[in-house]
């Protein structure tokens, strides 16, 4: 089971994987995109990111490493 991650740590992982901040969504949401992926990763600007969102972001990073 995926554990929640701190916002800073997850953003650091996304940046290291090549994701870029695309835009702000509604409320406290952020859209992060990668040129090789068709779907963006949506994060909330909270101290801890929920396990479900963490899992989605880690799967996107894993998908990039498989394609490389």
TrEMBL record:
InterPro entries: HicA_mRNA_interferase, HicA_sf
SUPFAM superfamilies, per database record: YcfA/nrd intein domain
Keyword Lipoprotein applies: no
Keywords for the protein's UniProt record, in alphabetical order: DNA-binding, Endonuclease, Hydrolase, Nuclease, RNA-binding, Stress response, Toxin-antitoxin system
One Gene Ontology molecular-function label: endonuclease activity
Top-level taxon of the source organism: Bacteria
Gene3D superfamilies with a match to the protein in the record: Hypothetical protein (3.30.920.30)
The keyword DNA-binding belongs to this UniProt entry's keyword annotation: yes
Entry similarity comment: Belongs to the HicA mRNA interferase family.
Protein name (database record): Response regulator consisting of a CheY-like receiver domain and a winged-helix DNA-binding domain
Species this protein is from: Corynebacterium callunae DSM 20147
UniProt lineage: Bacteria, Bacillati, Actinomycetota, Actinomycetes, Mycobacteriales
């Amino acid at each position: 089971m995926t554990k929640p991650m701190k916002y800073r740590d997850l953003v650091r992982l996304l940046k290291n994987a090549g994701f870029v901040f695309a835009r702000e969504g509604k409320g406290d949401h952020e859209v992060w995109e990668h040129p090789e992926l068709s779907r963006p990763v949506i994060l909330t600007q909270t101290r801890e990111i929920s396990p479900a969102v963490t899992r989605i972001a880690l799967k996107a990073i894993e998908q990039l490493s498989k394609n490389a």
